[in-house]
């Protein structure tokens, strides 16, 4: 009831403020004209007195008298407004008055039909104390964050909030929440796998060493943990071990129960990895020292082993100059130079590979990520 009274009072005041100028304009104009005529007549009388006393030359007096007369004529003509103009002015005032009255009435009618003036205000603090079932996701998160700010040792609260942050894409906050939950509630397979996923997403999709360690800890606690198994296979693929990644996904897919939400992601990852290998083989990838060949060379003397590896690396380098579109070949070349301790050559190979593949292409980003994992970032 108070709302309607205040609204009516404000509407009345605004309407009166607009209506008053409309009703008084003609009176002000008439009074103004009468005042002007009186001033002009006084000026004529004063001019006649000055001329009679000889204070002004007759020619100047005549010129001034003519100018004052013109002003009197204009004032008289404006006072006698034509009937049609006066009628139009009156019609305009009536139309303005109607508009001033109709607009508030229409607004009140619409608000009464569509508005909700009886609903009380709901500040954030009040909303956070209402029934959780009636709260939005943002309000629930704000409530949880407020609780944890006051109770930072509530491990259960961090455990609940961490996966919510992860689903909302707030990956850095998810990392913090998972770490706090593990610290306060203890490690579990789900928490470690969640931490690994948050670290991976926070790193732009790269399974870093920290994320890999979290996934491995999850598998120690639960060997069949699907999230950890999936992302460890992703790490193999990012390291250039495509065959091992495919084998890991195939094994995982065969062991997943029916209806598992991980069946589709595993099938998609397998298809993409197999398609990538097929495309690489179709381009006749450059030969080079594989990890197995480099491991076999470990039984040789240091001089022979180094000579053999350098020969294979030189052959790989030459073939990449002839076929520079071999992404896996560039990754093997960078890795080989790193194993040989030739950091400058590894950086040079990375630069040549990015120039051939295109740094902004998918293959260029793949080579960049792979080299960064070996400690060879892109040069400034």
Automatic annotation (TrEMBL):
GO terms for biological process: cytochrome complex assembly. PROSITE patterns: TPR. It comes from the Bacteria. TPR repeats lie at residues 155-188. One of its GO terms (cellular component) is cell envelope. The keyword Transit peptide does not apply. Keywords: Cytochrome c-type biogenesis, Repeat, TPR repeat. Residues 147-261 form the Cytochrome c-type biogenesis protein H TPR domain. The keyword Repeat applies. InterPro entries: C-type_cytochrome_biogenesis, Cyt_c_biogenesis_CcmI, TPR-like_helical_dom_sf, TPR_CcmH_CycH, TPR_rpt. It is found in: Cell envelope. This is C-type cytochrome biogenesis protein CcmI. The gene is ccmI.
């Amino acid at each position: 009831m108070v709302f309607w009274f205040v609204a009516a009072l404000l509407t009345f005041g605004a309407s009166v403020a607009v209506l008053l100028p409309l009703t008084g304009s003609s009176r002000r104009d008439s009074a103004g004209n009468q005042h002007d005529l009186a001033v002009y007549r006084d000026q004529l009388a004063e001019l006649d007195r000055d001329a009679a006393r000889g204070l002004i030359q007759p020619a100047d007096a005549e010129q001034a008298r003519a100018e004052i007369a013109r002003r009197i004529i204009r004032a008289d003509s404006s006072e006698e407004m034509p009937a049609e103009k006066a009628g139009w002015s009156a019609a305009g005032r009536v139309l303005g008055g109607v508009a001033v009255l109709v607009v508030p009435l229409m607004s009140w009618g619409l608000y009464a039909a569509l508005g909700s003036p009886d609903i009380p205000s709901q500040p954030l603090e009040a909303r956070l104390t209402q029934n959780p079932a009636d709260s939005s996701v943002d309000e629930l998160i704000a409530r949880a964050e407020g609780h944890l700010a006051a109770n930072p040792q509530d491990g259960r609260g961090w455990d609940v909030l961490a996966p919510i942050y992860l689903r909302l894409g707030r990956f850095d906050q998810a990392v913090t929440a998972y770490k706090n939950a593990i610290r306060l509630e203890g490690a579990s397979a789900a928490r470690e796998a969640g931490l690994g996923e948050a670290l991976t997403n926070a790193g732009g999709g790269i399974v870093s060493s920290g994320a890999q360690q979290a996934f491995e800890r999850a598998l120690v606690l639960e060997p069949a943990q699907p999230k950890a198994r999936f992302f460890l296979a992703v790490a193999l693929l990012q390291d250039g071990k495509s065959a091992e990644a495919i084998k890991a996904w195939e094994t995982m897919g065969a062991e997943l129960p029916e209806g598992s939400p991980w069946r589709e992601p595993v099938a998609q990852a397998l298809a993409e990895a197999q398609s990538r290998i097929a495309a690489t083989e179709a381009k006749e990838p450059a030969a080079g020292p594989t990890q197995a060949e480099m491991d076999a060379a470990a039984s040789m003397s240091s001089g022979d082993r180094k000579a053999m590896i350098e020969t294979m690396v030189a052959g790989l380098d030459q073939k990449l100059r002839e076929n520079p579109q071999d992404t896996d070949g560039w990754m093997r070349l960078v890795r080989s130079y790193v194993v040989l301790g030739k950091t400058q050559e590894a950086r040079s190979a990375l630069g040549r590979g990015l120039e051939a593949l295109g740094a902004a292409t998918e293959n260029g980003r793949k080579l960049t990520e792979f080299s960064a994992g070996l400690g060879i970032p892109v040069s400034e």
